[in-house]
Amino acid sequence: MSLSIMLLAFLGDLASAGSNGSHAAAVLFENFETVFHTTPAMLSDSLDDSGGWYVWEPFGYLRVALEAVEKQLPAKVLAESEAILVGSKHFLPPTGLGSIRSTRCYIIVLRKESALDFSRYFNKPPVASAVGTPIWNWSADLGEFGDGDPRSSSLYATPITQSYILVSNNLEELQNVSRRLTSVNNDARVLAGIHEWNDLRQHEFWGYRRYKHGKPRPIDRLVGTDQITPQAEAVILYVGMRKQTGVLRLFSSSPDDATAENINATGRITPLRPVGPKVWETVFPLAEIGSFPDSAYWVLWLFGWGVVV
Prior knowledge:
Layout: H1 3-31, E1 34-38, H2 40-46, H3 52-56, H4 60-69, H5 73-80, E2 81-92, E3 98-99, E4 101-110, E5 128-130, E6 133-140, E7 153-160, E8 164-168, H6 171-181, H7 187-192, H8 197-200, E9 206-210, E10 232-240, E11 245-252, H9 259-265, E12 273-276, E13 279-285, E14 307-308
Antiparallel strand pairs: 1-2, 1-9, 2-4, 3-14, 4-8, 5-6, 6-7, 7-8, 9-10, 10-11, 11-13, 12-13
């Protein structure tokens, strides 16, 4: 094979990988309020970093869920994947102490050459189907309901062609995402509405929340929206493990929006500073883990992820 043909094949593989990852992101953006993305390498490398907890936070549920099926399944999934994303919405407080609850759906983007047979890990019949593929159900002790409600979580999973594996705590959402992944692609329209998408997608780990403004909910103080004005549009987050820093950026429809000022008034993070007419930014150390919530961890509350202590 000539060098030029090999190069074209390599570029084709990259395009396909990027396409699958972007398609998964677009589907989650359409269906969920907050979306996080990471790579298997980022998860593996972050285990040895003091800020690694930051990368693992949105994906810890997936690891425990897969371990409940088979202890080595998380490692096998990481080895066969090129990206993992999670969408979350419908944030609820725990019963007692614990993590904020939400409806979640993980999309594992498989490598093109992956031969992972997800069905071999289930020795019972599927409970439903999505786009012609079986959906399996199992239970895991995720502690997602709080220490006052110790019941196990009910989880669902399905492989979509040989490109994705979906895992969710909600059957209907799993089926919705399955249908969108295999439906007519309108990713360009969806991603055009995402702030700085072309830059954000270059990072191995990122988070994005589009604020859903409407009737106030009594639990908003628990999901990072009590400082958010109706003018706030979105927040994005990405991290640099080498520098052990995180970057938080706030976008608004108004240059006079008070959201940044409100967040700064809490004193919980390094202050947001204006970096554009309708954009504010802060850079903070990942290893700054002080007395909760006065630490870098509080940033995750702005995305609907956090712990009630």
